[in-house]
Amino acid sequence: MVLSEIEEIKEEGEKIKEVVEDIRKTFSPYDPKFQEISIIEKEFEIMIQRLIEEYHMYIPAKILELLSSVVPSVIVPIPGLEISVDVVKIATDREYLNTVIAEIEDVDKFYDLLPSEYKLFNGDFGLESKELKKKQIQDFIKNEVTKAQNNLMFGGFGALIGTSPTKEVWETLSLPGLPTPLNLDVKGSIDEALADGKSDLEKVESLKEIKIEGFDIAGLLGGEFNDIIDSTEFKVARINQKLKEFEASWQTFLLKTWMGKVTEFFSKIGLSQLTELLNIDFCKFCELIGLPKQLTLPASVTAVANETVSPLSNQTVSITPYNPPPE
User: Fold this and answer.
1) Where are the domains of the chain?
2) Element (DSSP H or E) covering residue 140
């Protein structure tokens, strides 16, 4: 390889690096901003995961805003951590979220209070990091917020259909009652899987065998692990977080499905805005929070199409990239 070719490769590498940095700026609200460690692949994975988590919390937060007259309080305690959060603002006000996160100064104190399945990155699998421990605390808080949102929504909708004057409207309609909340013992399943595995590899395999409502881990994760960094700690953390996310989001799914069946009721009591919230899909959410619809890549980089079949809906998801013509 001649010197000019090497220089050309370096130049293209710098262009790609600039694109990566621009993408990082786009997702800056979700950036873990690690100071002690630098694992760019995992940092981007965390950013995308946090974007998805915000979407799962955003619609329930907006629903609770509309149900404010029948919801006693949206300030709820986070079990075991001795802090309380506003479950509406944490999903709609990033400055408030930053304030909540800033309260976690004593990482070891809060980490020690976490349930066992969240206590990762403490060296048990060979990796210890205070910054990743802080991420575990944040994951726990967000999952508990989603649980609290669901409980408040169930209570709020129960009040609408069971208390006058809206009760009288409900009784004139032949509509299905509220769904029964599921009681999924995700923690028990995780603890059992970790106890069954003798080695790190066996523990990961045991976790992957867990099924929740008929869905396996591969389905929830969108496929098998394809990590550049082969870390048992990261795999266990990712499986744990996805199971916890599914546990909380499944309740939201049941409520949203029910809401789609009782739109006539919402219309008659002047809350048709609740129905409109059901039309906010992930793409619409990204538009609402100002994420760009496309990214400009260097001419030497060609984006390729990606097509997957969702195990949750059996729908084919196709992503067809836009490659602008060369200048």
Assistant:
1) 17-180+242-319
2) helix 130-162
CA-wise closest residue to 85 among 29, 148, 131: 148
Contact (Cβ atoms closer than 8 angstroms) between residue 78 and residue 85: yes
Question: Sorting pLDDT into bands at 50, 70 and 90, what band is 326?
Answer: low
Per-residue model confidence as pLDDT tens digits over 153-200 = 999 999 999 999 999 999 999 999 999 877 778 888 888 888 877 787
Q: What is the mean pLDDT of the chain?
A: 83
User: Which bin fits 164, alpha (ψ -120 to 50), beta or left (φ > 0)?
Assistant: beta
* Contact criterion met (CB below 8 Å) for 185 and 212: no
| CA pair distance 55, 131, nearest whole angstrom | 24
Surface-to-core class of residue 314, CB atoms within 10 Å of its CB (0-12 exposed, 13-18 middle, 19+ buried): exposed
The CA–CA distances, whole Å, from 192 to 85, 158, 196 equal 31, 35, 6
Rounded distance, CA 166 to CA 162, Å? 8
**Do the bridges between strand 316-319 and strand 306-309 make them parallel or antiparallel, or are there none, so unpaired?**
antiparallel
Report the alpha-carbon angle 30-34-37, nearest 5.
140
The 10 Å Cβ neighbour count of residue 13 is 12
CB–CB of 310/317 below 8 Å? yes
